Amino acid sequence: MKRVLLVIIGCLIACTSCIGSFSKEIDGGFPDKIILSKEGGEFSYVGEVPIYSITIYDGVLVLDDSKNDYFFDSNGLKDSITVTYDWLTASTYKEARNTLKLFAEPNTSNRSRRSTIYLNKSAGHEYISIEIKQQD
What we know:
Elements: H1 2-18, E1 24-26, E2 33-36, E3 41-46, E4 53-57, E5 80-85, E6 88-93, E7 96-104, E8 113-120, E9 126-134
């Protein structure tokens, strides 16, 4: 009975140490945090890795396929991907897939706005996380 219990505990320990390896955050040469001016505008950031997909998370993940292209297709037919959520638009282009372009609408509220952008450098499990803050 002790042997069975030890095997079960050993398996549980081994499994919990593997969970973190399914997703791995990398920086890819992009900044961890970006602070945008209240006036908004267009901003461009160049990283070290190509971008495969873009997701904007603002506490709620909204996937509206009618206006957003989240990833490059495997056929290579798309020239760009663009994702818009509320006040923030993020895009990249096939010719410069290591470039992230951001467009922020002017902040007319009396408080700062925040979002997080997730970039995948491939169809795999590595991702880049960038915190976005627009000043008030």
